[in-house]
Write a structure and sequence with these properties.
Blueprint lengths: L1 E14 L8 H8 L8 E14 L10 H16 L2 E2 L13 H12 L6 E8 L5 E4 L11
This protein binds the ligand Nc1nc2c(c(=O)[nH]1)N=C([C@H](O)[C@H](O)COP(=O)(O)OP(=O)(O)OP(=O)(O)O)CN2 and zinc ion.
The site of zinc ion has 4 residues, from strand 2.
């Protein structure tokens, strides 16, 4: 019997949408107000969803306490109250929430107690992003 477990975590961080591949004008044109040199912040909500068989003894897909401890060490302590642009994972990537979702997926894929189905991140009350670790379809097929 396969079941799904989702858990939400929250952290606050600043960022600036900026690409070294663009000049100042292109950055302004592509990222608009989000390219403001002083940056801005968000209260991010991260939701991770795992799947697995329900343990016949504990009745659990995985232990929430273990997941919370993993999230505290590998997500909250790493991202909360930081400037995302200064983190190693954004050295060569724009700090969009798509890229953040990919990084958070990579992190939680390391939580081996259950199968990671997807990562869902809410950046503002108007936008959210999902990443399920699927390989991109070959060019021209999507
Ligand atoms: N494809 C993406 N586009 C944008 C992203 C992103 O991660 N991926 N991020 C931003 C900015 O971070 C911006 O701060 C949030 O976008 P914006 O739509 O301007 O903000 P909201 O209207 O949702 O909320 P407010 O805080 O009220 O402006 C932009 N684009
Ligand atoms: Zn932003």
């Amino acid at each position: 019997m396969k079941a799904y477990l989702s858990r939400r975590y929250h952290f606050s961080a600043s960022h600036r949408l900026h690409s070294e591949a663009f000049d100042e004008g292109q950055n302004q044109q592509v990222f608009g107000k989000c390219n403001n040199p002083h940056g801005h912040g968000h209260n991010y909500t991260v939701e991770v969803t795992f799947s697995g068989r329900v343990n016949p003894v504990t009745g659990m897909v995985c232990d929430l306490g273990a997941l919370d401890a993993f999230a505290r060490e590998n997500l909250i302590d790493r991202f909360d109250h930081t400037n995302l642009n200064l983190l190693h994972c954004f050295e060569n990537r724009v700090s969009t929430t798509e890229n953040l979702s990919v990084e958070v997926y990579r992190i939680f894929a390391g939580f081996s107690a259950a199968h990671l189905e997807r990562v869902h991140i809410e950046e503002t009350s108007n936008n959210s992003f999902d990443y399920a670790g699927d390989a991109m379809p070959a060019e021209g097929t999507h």
